[in-house]
Specification:
Length: 317
């Protein structure tokens, strides 16, 4: 049996001039809604947070929410119509929702691309650095990498295919890397991207993230593991880093693939990493002048990646 609801129990208009409303909860198809003395019926079930029309909208007219145009109608819309473009319909069909969907999209996205006016662009001036004379204990990685406040051995899963392997490998190595006088520990960097055969839409972002982690100054050595056949693999990562000028040659590193099977690759990775762990091969911290040389990184691998620095001087960071 269909519900009869006043509008404030069914939707919200962020701005009075909007011609579409946001559903405050799941609203079943056939629900009768009363607004400003007029009644309309929902054409389909509308999910919470999705939108439905509250006014008649002709093809080509803008859809307004929060007072802004986010789409244009591609067919006549009546109050109560569920707003769906092609992308929304595809996503809902993939989810196999338990209610009928509109057969065709009824609006298209409205996008205005930013155009840079190079003739009018005026860059600002860089603020000069202040030499405050403060120092911190860090790890010199050379001019291209900067100075780290940690010295981690990074075990990197190049794609989602090797995420579980790098986690298990780090568990095996963890007790071998004592946090005293050398490596602060062994860190796994596992993620959920790049495991398919087709090139992902965010390929550039994935490669920049992985490359930045490898050359980050908090990293003392890197072991990168791939499956070999996935879209994001070691060969592609190495090629990207070389083309973009990442200082890979200034990082102790090895690239290996799972061509020996899971157990064989795990043993190979453990052998390589343990060769980097003896005290005589560790980097030593030195006193570094100037806090401007600090570099930070998003804590994608846990709180140990967040630099916690104690400055020698009067003013803490």
């Amino acid at each position: 049996m269909s519900e009869n609801l006043p509008f404030d129990q069914a939707g919200r208009l962020p701005v009075p001039g909007d011609n579409v409303a946001i559903a405050v909860r799941r609203l079943e198809g056939g629900t009768r809604i009363t607004r400003q003395g007029a009644e309309f019926v929902l054409s389909h079930t509308v999910l919470e947070g999705h939108r439905f029309a509250v006014l008649p909208i002709a093809p080509g007219e803008p859809l307004l929410s929060w007072g802004l145009t986010f789409g244009e109608a591609v067919r006549p819309l009546a109050p109560g119509d569920y707003l769906c473009n092609a992308r929304i319909l595809a996503a809902l069909r993939q989810r196999k929702v338990d209610f009928p969907l509109p057969e065709e999209e009824n609006f298209s996205d409205y996008l205005v691309r930013y155009q840079l006016n190079e003739a009018e662009f005026r860059p600002g001036s860089q603020v000069a650095r202040e030499d405050d004379g403060l120092t911190f204990m860090g790890f010199e990685r050379g001019a291209s990498r900067g100075v780290g406040t940690r010295n981690h051995l990074l075990v990197l899963g190049t794609s989602s295919h090797t995420a579980s392997l790098v986690r298990i490998l780090v568990e095996r190595l963890h007790e071998q890397a004592e946090p005293s006088g050398g490596f602060d520990g062994v860190v796994a960097m596992a993620h959920t991207e790049g495991g398919g055969e087709e090139q992902p839409n965010n390929l550039d972002f994935i490669l920049r993230t992985l490359a930045g982690a490898i050359v980050h100054p908090n990293v003392g050595a890197v072991l990168a593991v791939d499956d070999g056949a996935e879209a994001v693999n070691n060969a592609r990562l190495r090629e990207f880093m070389t083309a973009q000028g990442y200082p890979l040659e200034h990082v102790t590193h090895r690239f290996i693939s799972m061509d020996k099977g899971f157990a064989g690759t795990l043993a190979e990775g453990e052998r390589i990493a343990r060769g980097w762990l003896p005290p005589e091969q560790r980097d030593r911290g030195v006193w570094v002048l100037g806090r401007h040389r600090l570099r930070t990184m998003i804590a994608v691998c846990g709180p140990r990646w967040i630099p916690r620095v104690k400055i020698v001087g009067q003013t803490p960071l």
